[in-house]
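Q&A FORM
Asked by: J.P.
Topic: structure of NrS-1 polymerase-like helicase domain-containing protein

PROVIDED:
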Amino acid sequence: IFKKYASKFAKKGCKFISEDPKILTVFQGYKYKKLDTIDYECLQMYFNLIKETIAAGDERVYEYILNWIVLLMQNLGKNLEQQSYFKKGVATVMKSIISDLTIRINEKNQPRRTAENVMNIIYVTNAEIPVQFDTDDRRHLVFACKTVHQVSEEYKEDIEYFNELSQSYTQEFYENLMTFLLERDISQFNPTLVPTTDAKKQLINVSRSPLGDAIIEYYKQFKYGIPVALANQCKPQNWQLKTYKNAMIHMCTEQSQ
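REPLIED BY: S.T.
REPLY: Here is the structure written out as tokens.
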């Protein structure tokens, strides 16, 4: 009997979502039911929070955030690497977490194991320079949030706002939100067309290396080609010539690929 019904008792593996009957599907469905119609009124405070506070009133960022969340909901179990960012100092580790199809998990007192990578990461920080970007970065959305409501002696009335906001997260709210996310049309949404924001421009500027600064300063000369001896004169003062040459070769190689 056990041989006959072995597949009922044992699985060859597990995934977040799988159509293979021999694979155990971890996702067992949504917690909330999908509705026939959407009550936008009960979602309005949530939408306003995203638009006015998180997106700081920027319509492009607001629409991108909404569409990105919808993209996650309508593509469950998929890793969407375009919307994440990482520091250069931990680039190898973070890039693996962001883009690899599988991930190695090392739990305490447990043997290491490989698992399907279904993570999509959003960073929230109050650091002035949280990440470093290449000057030609086109993959990451960066935006500075705006303080619209706060809890303090000066803004006591905002306590009522936060109480109302937290109390609005009811069963009805989540059912309407889930329905909205599953029904929203994003057929025209291209996640690779990331809005360019002032916050991102600022991070790119402070992420420039001394070599990048030298190239910007002598851009016209480099654009039309200059003798090596003259190019060496553009070397940052605190760099050794060998380091400068190697960095220049590396940058030129990257740009030509």
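FOLLOW-UP: The chain has two domains: 40-201, 209-256.
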